[in-house]
Specification:
- By secondary structure, the protein is of the alpha/beta class.
- The protein has two domains: about 10-245, Rossmann fold (3-Layer(aba) Sandwich), CATH 3.40.50; about 250-280, no CATH class.
- The protein is built from ten helices and ten strands.
- The protein is globular and about 50 Å long.
């Protein structure tokens, strides 16, 4: 479990953010985010949890400038980023990075790991000697051997590839990383090692995370605070232990009851309670 959330002003703030996608011929635009408010403080993890289609990934993409914001504001360290141009976005990459869900498609298969890690460093003007030293430090940071720099992604397992993706996100020493379902494509044992690595990195570097997931148990393990999204609306926000054990909103209670447990009888009781909770929504 993460340590207590630090105090202080928000590093990232979303205010009344709305995102709509085209509906196609003769169809109205579909509003995916419906006035979202969120804050992520320095050095904390805000867990953002919801089912598939809830809008949680769209929030991450809006923060990164990958989808346009119809209205509302997104600020990072007090600066508007939803209206930033391409040059400003590239400059912001020093402080704002992302780890994607799929470790198999997020890495260029034709580049060595060293070249992959070098790209953001070279783009920011690092020299050859500094780049080599930083690559070695990054591989050590994610517990991979130094010779990994000379190998291709296909030579690594899914968990190792996700470690490489984490190293790439850390290359420029960001202040906040958007973690978009970073362990959902991995087996349970590998999930645990990647989560432990992310917690270790946060303890050492004070980086903040927006941790996006559909799994309330994973969010509980990672987060200081949790925000629950349903159909593009934040329905509950609060301390992680509160939201993930005694939630107030019926939808959050349904998510909690959906989490698998090893006990067959308890799983059956949860299914029954989930059906009752769904009828309340």
């Amino acid at each position: 479990m993460s340590t207590a959330s630090p105090d202080g002003a928000a590093l990232l703030s979303l205010r009344d953010v709305r995102v709509a996608f085209p509906g196609g011929r003769r169809r109205a635009r579909t509003e995916v985010l419906k006035g979202v408010d969120l804050d992520v403080r320095p050095a904390e993890t805000l867990g953002l949890v919801g089912e598939s289609g809830s809008g949680k990934t769209t929030i991450g993409r809006a923060i990164l400038g990958l989808v346009p914001v119809a209205s509302g504001t997104i600020t990072f360290d007090g600066e508007r980023v939803d209206t930033a141009n391409g040059a400003r976005r590239r400059a912001l990459s020093r402080d704002l990075q992302v780890i994607f869900q799929d470790p198999y498609t997020s890495l260029n298969p034709s580049l060595t790991i060293g070249d992959t890690l070098a790209e953001p460093l070279i783009a920011q003007g690092a020299d050859a000697r500094g780049t080599r030293a930083r690559i070695a430090a990054l591989l050590d940071r994610v517990h991979l051997p130094a010779d990994a720099a000379h190998r291709l992604p296909r030579e690594f397992s899914g968990g190792q590839r996700q470690r490489i993706a984490i190293a790439r996100a850390l290359a420029l020493r960001p202040r906040l990383i958007v973690c978009d379902e970073p362990v959902s494509a991995l087996d349970l044992t590998t999930q645990r090692t990647i989560l432990d690595l992310l917690l270790e990195i946060q303890a050492d570097t004070a980086v903040a995370y927006l941790f996006i997931s559909h799994d309330l148990s994973v969010v509980r393990a990672m987060s200081h605070r949790v925000a629950v999204i349903h159909h593009g609306v934040i329905v509950e926000t609060g301390d992680a232990s509160q939201v993930t054990t005694v939630p107030e909103h019926p939808y959050t209670r349904t998510l909690l009851l959906s989490a698998p447990v090893a006990d067959v009888a308890e799983q059956r009781r949860r299914r029954e309670r989930r059906a009752e909770a769904s009828s309340e929504r």
